[in-house]
Design a protein that fits this description.
Elements (H helix, E strand, L loop, with lengths): L9 H13 L3 E2 H8 L3 H12 L5 E5 L3 E6 L1 H33 L4 H8 L4 H9 L3 E5 L7 E5 L1 H6 L11 H21 L1
Antiparallel strand pairs: 1-3, 2-3, 4-5
Helix pairs in contact: 1-3, 4-6
Length: about 190
């Protein structure tokens, strides 16, 4: 097997390190601010980094650039992610994720109601792992909503929650359950 060796200049090394350390896409504007170089120097470093072969590649959409697994490594990386996701989230985490994926953004109290137990720790763990994010609740500024992230969708192999199996049927069951609960409360 022949290894391709590319000697990278200091800026290309900095660019690679920066993109790796931050772990997500960065705009050219952000990169210019971080590296304090000219647009021409940055474009050369981006071009040089595109020519580096290995387990990671530079993905460039014309605005943002990001390091990703190379096509040759993508399948094994994806399989390892799925196994890690399934292994470490646990049953409580899977229940919470299913509720948030099928129902949409939920408050902690709504998640607790659906599961029948306190979900605070589970929500904190899922948020720390980047699978759900906490956003302000427009209906009640004293609470937050938890919504799925693109990381979660990617981990389960979806581009949108509506791609889930039996999506509409499950959402209808949630609505029916909420209606039944409200009706029972009103009759008390």
């Amino acid at each position: 097997m022949r290894l391709r060796c590319l000697i990278m200049d200091k800026l290309t090394i900095q660019l690679q390190g920066l993109l790796f350390a931050l772990g997500g896409p960065m705009s050219r504007e952000e990169l210019l601010h971080a590296t304090k170089v000219s647009s021409e120097e940055l474009e050369k470093a981006i071009s040089d980094l595109k020519n580096v072969s290995g387990g990671i590649v530079l993905v460039d959409d014309g605005v943002d650039v990001e390091l990703r697994a190379s096509p040759e490594a993508a399948a094994v990386v994806e399989q390892a992610r799925k196994e890690a996701f399934n292994r470490s989230v646990g049953r409580a985490g899977l229940e919470v994720l299913a509720a948030i994926l099928y129902k949409g953004a939920l408050t902690r109290a709504e998640v607790d109601f659906l599961r029948g137990v306190n979900s605070s720790q589970t929500l904190r763990t899922l948020a720390a792992r980047g699978l759900v994010r906490k956003i302000p609740n427009p209906k009640d500024e004293r609470s937050f909503l938890y919504e799925p992230t693109t990381e979660l969708l990617s981990a389960v192999g979806l581009t949108h929650a509506s791609d889930l199996p039996e999506y509409e049927e499950v959402r209808k069951k949630f609505t029916d359950m909420e209606t039944a609960f409200r009706d029972a409360k009103e009759q008390e």
